[in-house]
Amino acid sequence: MVAVSSPLLDAAVLVGLVVSALVTLGAGYRVIRGPTTPDRVVALDTIGTNVVAIAVLYAIDQGRGLFVDVALVLAIIGFISTIAVARYVTEGDIIE
User: Fold this and answer.
1) CA distance 50 to 47
2) Does the first or last residue of the chain, that is N or C, have fewer Cβ atoms within 10 Å of its Cβ?
3) Burial class (CB in 10 A: 0-12, 13-18, 19+), 65
């Protein structure tokens, strides 16, 4: 697969990667400091979403479609884990 490259695309991908990394660090702080369990759950979901964004941006940067597949799998796993944690927090049990 040939990577399509232009200065504007390269700059946009770089800015996207930096912003995603900074938001992930901020969410990591929220996971550690709390103050409540729902705040931590939302922060973990944000980290999962940012990891997906970083994988897609890396795929664009490198011109490799494999990382898009990886991002889709990560998104599915993140969605399922968020539902499981939310059910555990609200009901105290994941499986009824």
Assistant:
1) 5
2) C
3) exposed
CA distance 64 to 43: 29
Q: What is the DSSP string of 21-78?
A: HHHHHHHHHHHHH-SSHHHHHHHHHHHHHHHHHHHHHHHHHHT-THHHHHHHHHHHHH
Local confidence pLDDT in tens for the 96 residues of the chain? 555 678 898 999 999 999 999 999 999 999 999 898 888 889 999 999 999 999 999 998 888 888 899 999 999 999 998 888 888 888 887 777
- Specify the pTM: 0.82
